[in-house]
Specification:
By secondary structure, the chain is mostly helical. It is 55% helix and 8% strand. The chain has 13 helices and 14 strands. Strands 3-4-5 form a three-stranded antiparallel β-sheet. The two termini are 13 Å apart.
Length: 390
C-alpha cells in the first residue's frame, strides 16, 4: 500500500474540496453562525441553526488552525460562529438549545446533551487558538453542566417514566472519552484523570459485553445489566467503531498498550459484525438477537459510520501493526470513495440506501454538518503521512 500517495489523496480532498465548500457555502454573513441545510450544490434549503452542528463547525476550523496551519480565514470562520453561539445558543446559564432560528431565537429547548458537548469542544479548541479566557470559561462551565447531567442527560425533557425501565446510553460516556482529551489543557489534571477512568470503565466494562461475543450494546439498565427490549437490544456499529479510536487515543495518552489492543480487536469485531455481506457497507442499526430493529432506516449506509471506520482501522494498524486492520481499511476505503464522494460537486453524500445508491442528495441537514467528513480526512491524512515516514 502506497501510504504517501494515500496521504496526498486525503489531504487534497480536505484542503481543495471539503473545506472550501463549508467556508464558502455555510457561513451566514448577515446574522452569524452557519447554515447546515445545504443541497448537493451547496444552496441553502433551510435556515434553522442546530446548536450541536454550530459547535462542531467552530471546533473543526479552530482545530485545523491549531494543528495544520494558522490560516486567518479558518480562525475568522470559527470566531464568528462562536460569537453567534455565545449570544444565541444558550439560556444564559450555558444550557444549550437544540436549535434556533436563523436570527438566533430559540426553537427547541436544551434537551440534547450533544449541544453541550460540542459547545464545550468548540469553545475549548477556540480558547487554545485565541488565548481567550472568556472562551475557556464557557468551555469549563459547559463541561461542568455535562458532567452534572450524566445520570439524566435530557433532564426535565426526558419522556421516560422514571423507575420502570431506567436505561443509560452509550453515547455520553463515548463522547466524554474524546471530550476529556479535547479540553485537557483547561481542566485540573486529577479531575481529568478521574473522568477519563470513569469513561473507559463505562465503555469497556459496562457497554462492551464479552458474554455477547465482545460486541458493544447501545443501552443497558441503570445497574449495568442487559435489557431485552428494542433499546436494550440495539447495536450501533458506527458508534462502537468511532468510540474505539477515542479509546486508542486514551490508551496512547495513558501508555496502556492492552487498552489499545482491546480497542483494536473490538474495532475489527464490530466492522465484521456490521458489514452487509450482500451489498457491502456497514449497517446503521442492528438488533443483537437478530430481531427487526425499531429504526426503519436500520439498513441505510451512512457517511459518518464509514468515515469513523476508516479512522479506527487505520489507527489500529498504526498502533498495533495488525494486518487485519489494513485489510479492513482497504475494504472500507474502496467503498467510501466509490459511494460517498460526489464526483460533480464538492463535499460528500451522507445517506445511501442498502444497495449503496444515493438516497438523499443533500450535503448537510439537521444531522450532517461540517464535521465527520473533514475530521475523518484530517485524521486519515495525518496517520497515513506518519506511516509513509516509518
Amino acid at each position: 500500500m502506497d501510504f504517501k500517495k494515500l496521504a496526498e489523496q486525503y489531504k487534497d480532498e480536505l484542503m481543495d474540496n471539503v473545506l472550501p465548500f463549508w467556508l464558502n457555502k455555510s457561513q451566514d454573513k448577515e446574522y452569524g453562525g452557519y447554515y447546515t441545510c445545504l443541497l448537493r450544490n451547496g444552496d441553502v434549503f433551510d435556515t434553522d441553526k442546530f446548536i450541536w452542528l454550530q459547535g462542531r463547525e467552530v471546533w473543526l476550523f479552530s482545530m485545523l488552525y491549531n494543528k495544520v496551519e494558522k490560516r486567518q480565514e479558518w480562525l475568522d470562520c470559527a470566531i464568528q460562529g462562536a460569537e453567534f453561539l455565545k449570544k444565541h445558543g444558550h439560556d444564559g446559564n450555558y444550557n444549550w438549545y437544540f436549535s434556533v432560528t436563523r436570527e438566533g431565537k430559540p426553537i427547541v429547548e436544551p434537551y440534547n446533551i450533544f449541544s453541550y458537548t460540542f459547545a464545550t469542544m468548540a469553545f475549548g479548541q477556540l480558547a487554545i487558538a485565541t488565548g481567550s479566557e472568556e472562551y475557556a470559561d464557557i468551555a469549563k462551565k459547559t463541561f461542568d453542566n455535562v458532567l452534572s447531567k450524566q445520570g439524566n442527560p435530557k433532564g426535565k425533557w426526558n419522556k421516560l417514566h422514571p423507575g420502570t425501565r431506567d436505561l443509560k446510553g452509550f453515547s455520553l460516556p463515548m463522547i466524554l472519552c474524546n471530550l476529556a482529551l479535547e479540553i485537557e489543557p483547561l481542566i485540573d489534571k486529577d479531575f481529568l484523570m478521574r473522568t477519563i477512568e470513569d469513561c473507559i470503565h463505562e465503555v469497556m466494562d459496562v457497554f462492551y459485553r464479552p458474554e455477547l461475543g465482545g460486541i458493544i450494546v447501545e443501552n443497558v439498565l441503570a445497574d449495568g445489566s442487559l435489557a431485552d427490549c428494542f433499546e436494550g437490544r440495539q447495536v450501533t456499529p458506527g458508534h462502537d467503531i468511532e468510540a474505539m479510536w477515542f479509546i486508542m487515543d486514551l490508551g496512547k495518552r495513558l501508555a496502556r498498550p492492552e487498552l489499545i489492543e482491546k480497542a483494536k480487536d473490538t474495532t475489527l469485531r464490530m466492522a465484521e459484525y456490521g458489514w452487509d455481506k450482500e451489498y457491502g457497507g456497514i449497517y446503521y442499526f442492528l438488533d443483537r438477537k437478530g430481531f427487526p430493529p425499531q429504526q426503519l432506516e436500520w439498513d441505510q449506509k451512512l457517511w459518518w459510520v464509514h468515515i469513523e471506520t476508516l479512522i479506527s482501522t487505520l489507527k489500529g494498524y498504526q498502533l498495533t501493526g495488525d494486518p487485519k486492520c489494513l485489510e479492513w481499511f482497504e475494504r472500507v476505503h474502496e467503498y467510501v470513495w466509490s459511494h460517498f464522494k460526489d464526483t460533480e460537486y464538492p463535499e460528500w453524500f451522507g445517506y445511501l440506501n442498502r444497495r449503496g445508491e444515493v438516497l438523499l442528495p443533500l450535503k448537510g441537514g439537521k444531522w450532517k454538518g461540517c464535521f465527520h467528513v473533514p475530521r475523518g480526512l484530517y485524521q486519515c491524512w495525518q496517520i497515513l503521512e506518519d506511516l509513509s515516514k516509518e
